[in-house]
Structure formats: C-alpha cells, structure tokens
Amino acid sequence: MNLIESISRNIYPLEEKYVEQAQQRLDRLIKPTGSLGKMEHICAQLAGIYGRKYFDTSKKIIIAFGADHGVYEEGVAPDPQNITILQFKNFPHKINGVGTISKFVGAEVLAVDVGINCDEKLDGVIDCKIRKGTSNMAKGPAMTIEEAEKCIAIGIEMAEKCIQEDYTLIGIGEMGIGNTTPSTAIISSIGGFDPIEITGIGAGLKKELIEHKAQVIRNAIELNKPNPKDSIDVLSKVGGFEIGAMAGVILGCAANRIPVVLDGFISYAAALLAYNLNPRTKDYMIASHSSAEPGTEKVLGLMGLNPFLQMDMRLGEGSGAALSFNIIEASNYVYKNMATFDEIDMGR
Q1: End-to-end alpha-carbon separation of the chain, Å?
Q2: Which residue of 201, 222, 247, 312 is surrounded by the most CB atoms within 10 Å?
Q3: Per-residue pLDDT tens for 64-81?
Q4: What range does the domain containing 247 cover?
Q5: Is residue 10 part of a domain?
C-alpha cells in the first residue's frame, strides 16, 4: 500500500456528537436561531473536524507551492514564465499578496518549490523540486504516474510537518504562470465539462484568446484521454505539480482531523482531485471565497461546497484563504464568548 492509499484509508467522517454539541450551543446563544448564518456552519463543522466542543484556531498557516507548466508554450498566459520564480521569492518574505494578508491576520506562510523552472535555490523556500516544470500536455502527458504520486506525497508531508508544529488551521496556495490551464483541464476531465464552459482569463489573458486557451485544453484532453474516475491519471496527464501538492495537503489534513481552507480556482481543482480520491475529504474543506473564474460555480457544485466570501478576487497565491482566517477566528470567538439564554434571563 502506498502513502496516498494509506492516508486515504485513514479519513473518517466528522464526529457527529461534537457537531451536535456545537449546534446546541449555537442555538442557545442570545440571538435568533441560525441568524449568524455561515458563521454557525463553520463552528459546527470545526467541532466535528477537531472532535471536541471547543477548539483553538489561532495558530494558522498557508502552505503555498510553486511550479511551472510546459503548456505555457501554447500561448495560454499573458505573462512571461519567469514571473513564477520572481514572485515566489516574495512568499517567504511576506511582501506579496498572500504574505501581506497573512501578516495582517497573524498567519505564517510556508513556501515550497515543487517544479519552478530554475536551477537556483530560493531563499526561505523549501526545495522539493520534482523537475523544472511539467511537460506540455498539448503534446503528451504533463507528468509520469510516479511524478503525480510524488507531488501528492510532498503535499501530505508538508501538511503533516505543519500539524506536528501544532498548526490547527491550514490554508493552501500556489504560484505558477499558466496554471489556470491545467486546473481547467482537471475540472473539465473529472466534471465532464466542455472547456469553453469554464475557461477564463486567468491572470489577465485577452478575451479574444480565451477560445484558443479552451481549444488547447480540449485538444490535450482528447490526446491524453485522462480517466475521470482516477485522480492520479488525470493529474499525470493534464495537471500540475503544485496542484497535486495542494491535493496532498487536503488529504493530509483530512487524515489528521485538521481543517483545510481552500483559496481560489487552482485550489478548487486540487480539491476536486482529493474529493475524487476520497469524497470524505469534503468534510474537512472550508471554501473561503468564490473566485472570479467562470468555472467556479461548476467545480464547487461538484463537491457541494459553498464559499462564504464574494470578493471578485482572482489573485490566487492563497490570498483568499488567508483573508478568510479572520472570518473563521471571528466565528470561533463569537461561538465561545457570546452569552447564552441559559446564562442571561431573557425570558426564553
């Protein structure tokens, strides 16, 4: 049995006893029943994840993975590919989008190179490079089966590293010029969508080139014929190293009963891979925000996830996940500290 199979077998349903205990307390808070909406859903879910009535969400981290993509050469992205390395250098120094938001919310950022197209070692970045970018999926499989399994295993390892360091709230992020293309290919393959339905501008592709991008994805799927029921096969044929690594984090968190906060469109593709491997992973996912990419509603619908922020964001990096940490902590604070009808005589 390999690591992925072993981890997947250790993902169990939420502890319903604690979900019910949390809901009972939420219903006794001095407010109309259900009036805090998704804040209440978050707390009940967290109680079931942690397996306790009260829990700590204060130690939090974004695990971000960087990688490049061979399909870039098909003209599917507007920016030069070296932006991946130039921006990823900023992750550990917290001067980019996700880093700045993480500073504000009191979260750490762990940056991991799983496939950036460079030879140099990046200061403050963990080097887990599989190779310098995937192969061009428009000409053949993006990676081997062994590489697909390896990037997922790296994600599991990074999740468990953070859990051993007592992080109780983990978000996922990424950096990789062109990575909306493999993300869309993954979602198209598993969900059975025509790529044109869910292909967007990514980091700023001109609208007149969206049809070309969709055709590249369509051709890659037709060429490689990924098996929609097999996440490893899909990842190897049309995926990306950072996407597989994020899927690994989700698996690692779920197996260790730690919530994992999704970011945007790229993370949804990773989440779909994990969900396709084991649907129970969904119970451990928190969808932070609704990405501006057009495939958002469809992919979240496949998993039955409902994000709680609508910010029209499409930066990625883990920025939406970091932003949502404050909402999660506020929800937990209210849950713990708001008075109940039993404590205050309000005639109810």
Answers
A1: 56
A2: 247
A3: 999 999 999 999 999 999
A4: 60-326
A5: no
